[in-house]
Automatic annotation (TrEMBL):
<dbReference type="InterPro" id="IPR037284">
    <property type="entry name" value="SUF_FeS_clus_asmbl_SufBD_sf"/>
</dbReference>
<feature type="region of interest" description="Disordered">
    <location>
        <begin position="1"/>
        <end position="22"/>
    </location>
</feature>
<dbReference type="GO" id="GO:0016226">
    <property type="term" value="P:iron-sulfur cluster assembly"/>
</dbReference>
<feature type="domain" description="SUF system FeS cluster assembly SufBD core">
    <location>
        <begin position="134"/>
        <end position="362"/>
    </location>
</feature>
<dbReference type="InterPro" id="IPR055346">
    <property type="entry name" value="Fe-S_cluster_assembly_SufBD"/>
</dbReference>
<comment type="similarity">
    <text>Belongs to the iron-sulfur cluster assembly SufBD family.</text>
</comment>
<protein>
    <submittedName>
        <fullName>Fe-S cluster assembly protein SufD</fullName>
    </submittedName>
</protein>
<dbReference type="InterPro" id="IPR000825">
    <property type="entry name" value="SUF_FeS_clus_asmbl_SufBD_core"/>
</dbReference>
<dbReference type="InterPro" id="IPR011542">
    <property type="entry name" value="SUF_FeS_clus_asmbl_SufD"/>
</dbReference>
<dbReference type="Pfam" id="PF01458">
    <property type="entry name" value="SUFBD_core"/>
</dbReference>
Length: 392
């Protein structure tokens, strides 16, 4: 099954059409064969080391002996978790893949985990779903559907741990007037590889606060995309990542403003240390010609702690109408602020402790957005352990 935003025909090889002019014209398809084989020169893949994807991108993979298991314990009132087949009408209703690995994940997943929050439910207890890897040998595929009913309020945590080679898709359907906080944590073991696409669709007056934290894994690439189906909806995306020696952590976003009077705010921060540590952030915001009254801003900041680490940061805005409230973007990558260090040291704080304080302060604003205290404390402890180990 193939769809395309502008119903444009597509072909491959000699005589192929020119690349799409805007993100809204990307090929969208559930069929892996509709996407050409990747060679690493594509704009959306030029930062990703394909040789480390364990054949997720070329179809030459072997299946894993066991897929990641899901753990979620007792569920609060108004929340259900079920497993459904791919023939369930909800699956694929929000997310149509626009890259080869996402299409492979859709094809390869035999079932989907559905988390449903009832209409008007005010869920006081966070809903925690743990995705636990069972080994990095062989490839696993996954699919998750988050269904939030009209006027519901809920916090959902997707906590990824263990060892794995995984390509998966997450669909997020946010009903009218619903208020959702979604925390997605990649705290994998050091040998894990994950390529994930999360797609959110927001109805009128809906609010989604999306928080992404990436700390573990050998290679983690997450694509978050969002679109609106009604006015006065709000999408806030915050991200924290810490790339250590040899790690590749890549975050890509596409916020598609296709209706009037909606808002988006993107704020990602990353730290890097160690030889070969590589962080990539690419933020795309599209304001279509019908999206009058849009308010949007995106910013990415990176703190490079040692020699040998590299950060790539690419913010993009596509604006097709002048009738907007505001639109802007910013990006900054740098090392420690010597003035900050001097100020702290002049008050009797050692250089090592001063550096740790700077990094804590760099992340504090975004980590404090996590409303789950024990999770927040765990992530802070992981960051502290890395800083202590490196003597930062």
């Amino acid at each position: 099954m193939t769809t395309n935003a502008l119903a444009r025909p597509h072909s491959h090889g000699a005589g192929a059409e020119a690349p799409p002019k805007t993100k809204s014209q990307l090929l969208r398809s559930f069929d892996v064969a509709d996407f050409p084989a990747l060679n690493g020169r594509e704009e959306d893949w030029r930062f990703t080391p394909l040789r480390r994807l364990r054949h997720l991108h070329d179809g030459e993979w072997s299946p894993a002996a066991a897929s990641p298991r899901h753990e979620y314990g007792d569920l609060p009132e108004g929340v259900t978790v079920t497993t459904v087949g791919k023939d369930d009408a909800r699956i694929g209703s929000v997310l149509t893949p626009f890259d080869r690995v996402s299409a492979q994940a859709f094809t390869g997943a035999s079932e989907a985990l559905v988390v449903s929050v009832a209409r008007n439910a005010a869920v006081a207890t966070p809903v925690v779903v743990r995705v636990v890897g069972q080994g990095a040998e062989g490839v696993a595929f996954g699919h998750t559907f988050l269904e939030i009913g009209e006027s519901a309020e809920v916090t959902i945590v997707l906590d990824h741990t263990g060892s794995v080679t995984l390509a998966d898709n997450v669909e997020i359907a946010v009903g009218a007037n619903a208020k959702v906080t979604l925390i997605s944590v990649a705290d994998w073991s050091g040998d894990a590889v994950q390529v994930q696409h999360q797609k959110a669709r927001l109805a009128r007056d809906a609010s989604l606060n999306h928080i992404s934290v990436s700390l573990g894994g050998d290679l983690v690439r997450q694509y978050v995309s969002a679109e609106y189906t009604g006015p006065n909806a709000s999408f806030e995306a915050a991200g924290v990542y810490f790339a250590d020696t040899g790690q590749h952590l890549e975050h890509r976003l596409l916020v598609d403003h296709g209706v009037p009077d909606c808002r988006s705010d993107v704020n990602y921060r990353g730290a890097l240390q160690g030889d070969g540590a590589h962080a990539v952030w690419v933020g795309d915001v599209l304001i279509q010609d019908v999206a009058t009254g849009t308010e949007t801003y995106e910013i990415n900041r990176n703190l490079v702690l040692t020699e040998g680490a590299r950060a790539d940061s690419v913010p993009n805005l596509e604006i097709e109408t002048g009738e907007i409230v505001s639109a802007g973007h910013a990006s900054a990558t740098g090392r420690f602020d010597d003035e900050q260090l001097f100020y702290l040291q002049s008050r009797g704080i050692t250089e090592d402790e001063a550096r740790r304080l700077v990094v804590r302060g760099f992340f504090a604003e975004l980590l404090n957005k996590i409303p789950v205290a024990d999770l927040r404390d765990r992530l802070l402890a992981t960051i502290e352990e890395r800083l202590s180990r490196a003597g930062a």
